[in-house]
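Backbones bend. To wit:
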Amino acid sequence: MQKLFKLASIALAAVAATGVQAQDFPAAGKPITIVVPFTAGGPTDRVARDLADSMRKHLNNATIVIDNSAGAGSAVGIAKVARANPDGYTLLLNHIGMATVPTLYRKLSFNVANDFEYLGIINDVPMTLIGKPTLPADNYKDLVAWIGKNKGQVNLANAGVGSASHLCGLMLQSTLKMEMTPVPYKGAAPAIADLMGNQVDLLCDQTTNTTAQIESKKVKAYGVTTPKRLTTPALKNLPTLDEAGLKNFQVTVWHGLYAPKGTPAAVTKKVNEAMRLALKDPEFIRKEEQLGAVIANDDRLTPEGHKKFVQSEIATWGKVIQAAGAYAD
């Protein structure tokens, strides 16, 4: 009986401690770290920094630090958060890579489904199909004809294995049933630079990376990957790939927020509430719209909806990656 009483006392003390921790979260002077599994300056990094600026207002003006832990298609950063103390002070902001690493990398130290608390989807970022400035095709129909005439000679750039452009390229080839030669780069910037310099032929990448180049006509643009045309001034006249002829081709890059498994429910609730308030911040909305991103506004804002969505994305992209045999290990 004494042993049982002692165990019960320990359990109650642990619950009480968790309650105090959650009530005081975030503690004054203790920073929150958001791990971004990509290099600084990229689109996911920009989303994280803009979100942090807005979220901190709703988290007692806490300092929020961005930790860029890049590598292995975001697997390095994901693993870092999976191992972190589950107290709410280490979070993960990742894009579609959260749904692709389970198939791309067959040896992982973490389980996407079981090792994280899901905190909500932040946004959706459309993709654009663009080409080098000297490419002879001026529209999507002519582009497909050109690819057909140059089988085996068309280069398709991407920002590295597991990047959004890599995934979009796989989906493009699968839908077109046309193979192209992948040319991986260490990031979007060098890929776009070589595209503008006519060193590679095509690139399918996020509007966050391509809008400025499309607007300045430094590349040729063939379409966006959304069901409807975008309203962004620089892209509003660009047709969707679906209306241009590539039926049912829809690819968006989404970003979500995560905490290590076991983070107290009261803490994850606070973080989710701060995130949802940040998504209504006019300044954050303005910054996202400039990048061509669409703020999430559906059941994916909830932890339950977020996790269900990621599970469906794992199934979708798993088929694409397996069909292409595009494993990273």
The chain is about 45% helix and 20% strand. The first strand starts at residue 32 and ends at 36. Residues 3-20 have pLDDT under 50 and may be disordered.
